[in-house]
Write a structure and sequence with these properties.
Length: 332
């Protein structure tokens, strides 16, 4: 749903504060508020509740802090739009300023000039799936740190065995928690997202973690018209860097959007080139053309996402030899 509002409230969200710019197309009104439900209700919801349809609240998806605010505002009947970070938009303004006040004015002006898609809350089950996924990734990161620290400590001179035992105990504990969390996530996928999970699992290389990411982050691509939009959403689309005839640098992916999604897709592409015959030949061709392993794997990740999009959008299990109508075949 595209928006066309007369007033835009641009919000730069921090852990404890909100920098707010209320923009009507002419002037900005700046507010700095404490980030708590009582203040939001008093200063924002009460003020704008009678202007529904004329005001939209716009914020960047830069972490997790914006999520509570989006749900509070939406549940009060107010229009909300969550956009990808506006680094490039600020650069186009030729600005070198980086303050919270400046950021919220940029967000407000962008929301006023550009077409926005209104925020639609995810189901409680989808949110729970996303939280389980993040918790598992956090625990895996902690385990990796502990394993590295233990390895370094082991090579210290005269390192007591009982100290290593403390590390072993912590690593074992985290490992058990990871197994329990994965079981819980798999059960949730099978009970609440059975059809989507089975469709995604038909793609060799896509497992529980990547399935959970696609279902929870992309909401099964319900709000995406094509695979390119999904790729841009998580920042794995190439961004060329050219100017005139003299400046032609190698392009790279934009890296805007969800970092965890990029990491999981990249990890899935590593598995894909080993277990799926569909991905290995193009991966090897890219290497032969002089591309780095990282670039080739990102291309495979991009292909994986397009296939997942096609499978869920067309409600068909993945089939290597599928030759349906041209529109569907193009997805593969």
């Amino acid at each position: 749903m595209e928006t066309n509002h007369k007033t835009v409230v641009g919000i730069d969200v921090a852990k404890d504060t909100l920098s707010i710019s209320i923009f009507d197309g002419g002037k900005h009104e700046y507010l700095l508020l404490d980030y708590n439900e009582k203040t939001i209700k008093k200063e924002l919801i009460q003020r704008f509740k009678n202007f529904q349809g004329f005001v939209v609240f716009v914020m960047e998806a830069t972490g997790i802090y914006h999520t509570r605010l989006a749900y509070w505002l939406h549940s009060s009947g107010l229009s909300v739009a969550i956009i990808n970070p506006l680094i490039r938009y600020a650069q186009m303004r030729m600005s070198r300023v980086k303050t919270d006040k400046f950021d919220c004015t940029i967000i407000a002006e962008y929301g006023y000039k550009e077409e926005l898609v209104l925020f639609k809350p995810k189901s409680q089950e989808t949110l729970q799936l996303g939280l389980l996924l993040k918790t598992i990734e956090d625990f895996l990161a902690q385990k990796s740190i502990l394993v590295s620290q233990r390895h370094a400590l082991k090579h210290q001179a005269h390192c007591p065995k009982d100290i290593l035992a403390f590390y072993d105990k912590s690593i074992e504990c985290i490992s058990k928690e990871i197994v329990a969390l994965k079981k819980k996530m798999k059960l949730l996928l099978q009970e609440e997202f059975k059809s989507q999970y089975e469709l995604l699992y038909s793609i060799k290389g896509i497992g529980i973690m990547s399935s959970a990411m696609i279902i929870s982050l992309f909401d099964s691509f319900e709000h995406f018209e094509n695979a390119k939009q999904a790729s841009s959403f998580i920042g794995i689309t190439p961004v060329p860097y050219e100017s005139g005839t003299s400046v032609k640098r190698k392009g790279s992916i934009s890296k805007q959007g969800n970092t965890l999604a990029r990491k999981l897709l990249y990890r899935t592409s590593l598995s894909g080139v080993q277990s799926n015959a569909l991905f290995k030949p193009p991966y090897e061709r890219l290497l032969e053309k002089g591309k780095s392993k990282k670039q080739a794997l990102i291309a495979v990740a991009h292909k994986l996402l397009r296939i997942a999009f096609g499978v869920l959008k067309n409600n068909r299990p993945f089939c290597v030899d599928y030759c349906g109508d041209k529109k569907i075949a193009k997805v593969y």
